[in-house]
Amino acid sequence: MSGSSAVVTLGEEAKQPRKNIKKALLISFLITGVVFVLTSYSLTVGWGVSKMPTFFQSSVPGLIVTDKFIGLPFTILLFVFIINSLFAGSLAPLNTSSRMIFSMSRDGLGPSIFSKVHPIHKTPYVAIIIIAAVSYIVSLAAGILIGPKDGFLYLVTASSAALFIGHILSNFGLGITYKKLKEFKVLTHAIIPAVATIILSIAMFYSFVPPAYPVDYAIITAIVFIIISAIAIVIYARKHPSQIHKAGMADKQVQDQINKNE
Fold this sequence. Notes:
By secondary structure, this protein is an all-alpha fold. The chain has helices spanning 17-47, 52-55, 61-69, 72-106, 125-146, 148-180, 186-208, 215-239, 241-246, 249-261. The protein contains 10 helices and no strands. The two termini are 30 Å apart. 11% of the residues are buried. The model has no long low-confidence stretch (mean pLDDT 85).
């Protein structure tokens, strides 16, 4: 589900972003929700409700159920779709992280090289290349050190845990931000984020508890990374308070231009 909200970071590069980004979000969440519900129901019925504990012990339960009820040709087709999904699931965080680093660099919160834009495609190509290279090195190292399967599970779990925690922190930050802007609405900026936080917390608990190798190390990695990042931000804010206050100004100028064009 990493790509469902990643479209927001492409707002600057989209035509009529206020209209099209909103539409893309609604469509992506709707499609994702429908696919997840139907797939979960089909796999549960196909595997057998009473046999579901063994479902989670299988590495490819979806392919097994498909082969059993539909046959090998469609199973091969499903495998191709899975590979495509893995690629798309990796591409979405790449788009998100590269645009975030580009935005931070443009605000003076990172090396200026990250804010370079391609002269033709108008994309932050330097940030994309560097993030892709780092991701490749980390993925390769994890596969070599603990094996392809455990390496994959470790990285997916660590990134998923960080994504969950990031969304929870965003839910808390939303209300604080809109209070400062004097645009706070109880339902939109307090109740809905609180409900979302509860749902995410429950999802985290049942996804990661009880932790087993390499999930346990992945969760620790995500938590440590977030703590180190928070400490680094606090230290930077104390040393460069004026720079922190300027954060978001470049984005505001872009937003003003978008509003003007629309």
